[in-house]
């Protein structure tokens, strides 16, 4: 049972024996588990690192098992906090990689073509869509999608799907609150496409047949222009970037469950992390595709759950509880 949490089988056996036989000595635990006393001591050391055993108050020199509902919940909370930290680091790495790829591609003649203005970008997207043979991958950050942009994509996407082209689209978690984007996502799903969402996304990106890609010249403002990239090494790196983001995103239609130990959604956890690094509400909201009002509402809810009277106090309590 505990092996899934990283606890070895001998340590698991010792822990279960201590729960069933709380008064046993090391020698008795060894005999019961079929282990040597040295193996039991090693198991106790391991359990101590996982905080599943503590020093006994009644019997000095002995250890007592922590109740599973307490000890295992703490392990899960720590692992989930570590996962959230790794995901946040990955999101930062994605953004840096996108910018690096754009800069490198721009300075390599023959590997990239610079497109100026939205009309040029839209025209190139239409050509790429018509020429797609196997797959179109897209990352679309931002909390809102213009209805006219979504409608413009229906025809080309429907034609591509009818030809057997796979379409995978990544949207920001906050677009689930946008009725136009939600309706479009469900329409795309009904035609055989795939749509997922995540709190934090890489920069805007379109990859066609894993051989061509469009990336923004300026990740902070995609309307300044785009680079049409065809260098195999760069496109492969962008595909890896997409697949990493796709692997931790949630399919549209599925409900992203709150963390059972904290009650935080992934968006709330990421918001706490961003604000904890010193970002303003506005900047954190831009990263997550949230309005300032939505950021304020999330923080009010988090502060209420923590019983905090200020954001500073909320940050301290969240860290103490292992939420960050």
TrEMBL record:
InterPro entries: Sig_transdc_resp-reg_C-effctor (IPR016032), TrmB-like (IPR051797), Tscrpt_reg_LuxR_C (IPR000792), WH-like_DNA-bd_sf (IPR036388). Coiled coil: none annotated. Residues 257-322 form the HTH luxR-type domain. It holds the Pfam family GerE. Transmembrane segments: none annotated. SUPFAM superfamilies: C-terminal effector domain of the bipartite response regulators (SSF46894). It comes from the Bacteria. This is Helix-turn-helix transcriptional regulator. It comes from Kitasatospora cathayae.
């Amino acid at each position: 049972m505990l092996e899934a949490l990283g606890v070895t089988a001998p340590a698991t056996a010792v822990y279960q024996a201590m729960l069933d036989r709380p008064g046993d000595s090391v020698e008795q635990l060894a005999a019961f588990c079929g282990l040597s006393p040295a193996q039991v001591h090693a198991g106790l050391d391991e359990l101590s690192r996982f905080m599943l055993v503590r020093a006994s108050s009644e019997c000095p020199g002995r250890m007592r098992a922590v109740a599973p509902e307490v000890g295992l919940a703490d392990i899960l909370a720590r692992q989930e906090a570590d996962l959230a930290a790794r995901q946040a680091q990955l999101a930062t790495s994605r953004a840096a990689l996108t910018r690096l790829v754009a800069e490198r591609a721009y300075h390599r003649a023959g590997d990239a073509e610079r497109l100026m203005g939205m009309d040029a970008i839209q025209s190139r997207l239409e050509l790429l869509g018509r020429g797609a043979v196997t797959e179109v991958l897209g990352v679309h950050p931002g909390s809102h999608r213009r209805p006219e942009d979504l409608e413009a994509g229906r025809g080309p996407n429907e034609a591509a799907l009818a030809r057997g082209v796979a379409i995978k689209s990544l949207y920001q978690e906050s677009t689930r609150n946008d009725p136009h984007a939600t309706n479009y996502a469900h329409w795309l799903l009904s035609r055989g496409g795939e749509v997922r969402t995540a709190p934090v996304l890489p920069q805007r990106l379109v990859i066609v047949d894993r051989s061509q890609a469009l990336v923004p010249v300026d990740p902070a403002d995609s309307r300044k222009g785009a680079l049409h990239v065809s260098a195999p090494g760069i496109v492969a790196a962008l595909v890896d970037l997409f697949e990493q983001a796709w692997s931790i995103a949630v399919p549209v239609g599925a409900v992203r469950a709150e963390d059972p130990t904290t009650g935080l959604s992934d968006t709330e956890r990421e918001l706490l992390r961003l604000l904890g690094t010193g970002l303003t509400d506005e900047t954190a909201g831009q990263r997550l595709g949230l309005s300032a009002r939505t950021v304020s509402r999330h923080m009010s809810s988090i502060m209420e759950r923590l019983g905090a009277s200020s954001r500073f106090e909320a940050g301290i309590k969240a860290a103490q509880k292992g939420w960050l």
